[in-house]
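Memo to structure team: turn this sequence into C-alpha coordinates by end of day. - J.P.
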Amino acid sequence: MKGTSMLSHIKLDGSNCLGAHIVALLAAAVAIAACDGANQGVQIGNGQAPDPVIVDFPIAYIKAPLPVDDRGEFAQTDARELISFDFGADLYFKDRASPSSLAVNITGEITQGLG
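Reply from structure team:
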Protein backbone atom coordinates (compact mmCIF):
# COMPACT_ATOMS: atom_id res chain seq x y z
CA MET A 1 0.00 0.00 0.00
CA LYS A 2 3.01 2.28 0.13
CA GLY A 3 3.16 3.10 -3.58
CA THR A 4 -0.58 3.41 -4.22
CA SER A 5 -2.45 6.67 -4.45
CA MET A 6 -5.13 7.78 -2.04
CA LEU A 7 -7.77 7.80 -4.79
CA SER A 8 -7.58 4.04 -5.03
CA HIS A 9 -8.79 3.71 -1.41
CA ILE A 10 -11.91 5.87 -1.70
CA LYS A 11 -15.04 3.86 -1.02
CA LEU A 12 -17.85 4.22 -3.53
CA ASP A 13 -20.58 3.23 -1.09
CA GLY A 14 -21.38 6.86 -0.10
CA SER A 15 -19.38 7.09 3.13
CA ASN A 16 -17.31 10.00 1.79
CA CYS A 17 -20.40 11.76 0.45
CA LEU A 18 -20.62 14.13 3.44
CA GLY A 19 -17.02 15.25 3.00
CA ALA A 20 -17.57 15.90 -0.71
CA HIS A 21 -20.65 17.99 0.05
CA ILE A 22 -18.75 20.07 2.61
CA VAL A 23 -15.90 20.69 0.17
CA ALA A 24 -18.36 21.70 -2.58
CA LEU A 25 -20.24 24.00 -0.19
CA LEU A 26 -17.02 25.70 0.94
CA ALA A 27 -15.88 26.15 -2.66
CA ALA A 28 -19.21 27.75 -3.59
CA ALA A 29 -19.08 30.07 -0.55
CA VAL A 30 -15.55 31.20 -1.44
CA ALA A 31 -16.58 31.84 -5.06
CA ILE A 32 -19.60 33.92 -4.00
CA ALA A 33 -17.58 35.90 -1.45
CA ALA A 34 -14.95 36.67 -4.10
CA CYS A 35 -17.58 38.32 -6.32
CA ASP A 36 -18.39 41.04 -3.76
CA GLY A 37 -16.00 43.65 -5.18
CA ALA A 38 -14.04 44.49 -2.01
CA ASN A 39 -17.18 44.96 0.11
CA GLN A 40 -18.41 47.85 -2.03
CA GLY A 41 -21.58 46.17 -3.19
CA VAL A 42 -22.57 45.65 -6.78
CA GLN A 43 -21.48 48.58 -8.96
CA ILE A 44 -22.34 47.84 -12.57
CA GLY A 45 -20.70 50.27 -14.98
CA ASN A 46 -19.26 52.59 -12.34
CA GLY A 47 -15.66 53.69 -12.38
CA GLN A 48 -15.05 52.72 -15.97
CA ALA A 49 -13.41 54.99 -18.52
CA PRO A 50 -15.11 55.47 -21.91
CA ASP A 51 -14.28 52.86 -24.52
CA PRO A 52 -11.41 54.19 -26.67
CA VAL A 53 -12.47 52.01 -29.61
CA ILE A 54 -15.95 53.50 -30.01
CA VAL A 55 -15.93 56.88 -31.73
CA ASP A 56 -18.88 59.05 -30.72
CA PHE A 57 -20.24 61.17 -33.56
CA PRO A 58 -22.87 63.90 -33.98
CA ILE A 59 -26.31 62.99 -35.31
CA ALA A 60 -29.19 64.93 -36.89
CA TYR A 61 -32.76 63.63 -37.15
CA ILE A 62 -36.26 64.77 -38.06
CA LYS A 63 -38.98 64.69 -35.43
CA ALA A 64 -42.59 64.93 -36.62
CA PRO A 65 -45.95 64.37 -34.91
CA LEU A 66 -48.00 61.31 -35.81
CA PRO A 67 -50.96 62.02 -38.09
CA VAL A 68 -54.33 61.84 -36.28
CA ASP A 69 -57.90 62.14 -37.53
CA ASP A 70 -60.71 64.38 -36.20
CA ARG A 71 -61.33 62.02 -33.25
CA GLY A 72 -57.67 62.06 -32.22
CA GLU A 73 -57.02 58.50 -33.37
CA PHE A 74 -54.02 57.46 -35.45
CA ALA A 75 -54.71 58.10 -39.15
CA GLN A 76 -53.34 55.47 -41.50
CA THR A 77 -51.56 57.18 -44.38
CA ASP A 78 -51.68 55.89 -47.94
CA ALA A 79 -48.18 55.39 -49.31
CA ARG A 80 -49.51 55.65 -52.87
CA GLU A 81 -50.37 59.36 -52.36
CA LEU A 82 -46.97 60.88 -53.09
CA ILE A 83 -48.23 64.45 -53.52
CA SER A 84 -49.45 64.98 -49.94
CA PHE A 85 -47.26 67.05 -47.61
CA ASP A 86 -47.72 67.22 -43.86
CA PHE A 87 -46.35 70.37 -42.22
CA GLY A 88 -44.91 70.25 -38.74
CA ALA A 89 -41.58 68.43 -38.70
CA ASP A 90 -38.52 69.84 -36.91
CA LEU A 91 -34.84 69.13 -37.48
CA TYR A 92 -32.88 68.22 -34.33
CA PHE A 93 -29.13 67.96 -33.80
CA LYS A 94 -27.18 66.11 -31.07
CA ASP A 95 -23.44 66.49 -30.41
CA ARG A 96 -23.19 62.79 -29.53
CA ALA A 97 -25.23 59.81 -30.71
CA SER A 98 -26.28 59.07 -27.14
CA PRO A 99 -29.77 59.10 -25.58
CA SER A 100 -28.50 61.33 -22.77
CA SER A 101 -27.09 63.94 -25.18
CA LEU A 102 -28.93 67.29 -25.38
CA ALA A 103 -31.10 67.65 -28.52
CA VAL A 104 -31.07 71.12 -30.13
CA ASN A 105 -34.07 72.11 -32.29
CA ILE A 106 -32.46 73.75 -35.35
CA THR A 107 -35.71 74.71 -37.11
CA GLY A 108 -37.58 75.79 -33.97
CA GLU A 109 -37.55 79.51 -34.86
CA ILE A 110 -38.97 78.84 -38.33
CA THR A 111 -41.68 76.32 -37.38
CA GLN A 112 -42.40 77.94 -34.00
CA GLY A 113 -41.94 74.53 -32.38
CA LEU A 114 -44.99 72.98 -34.07
CA GLY A 115 -42.98 69.96 -35.19
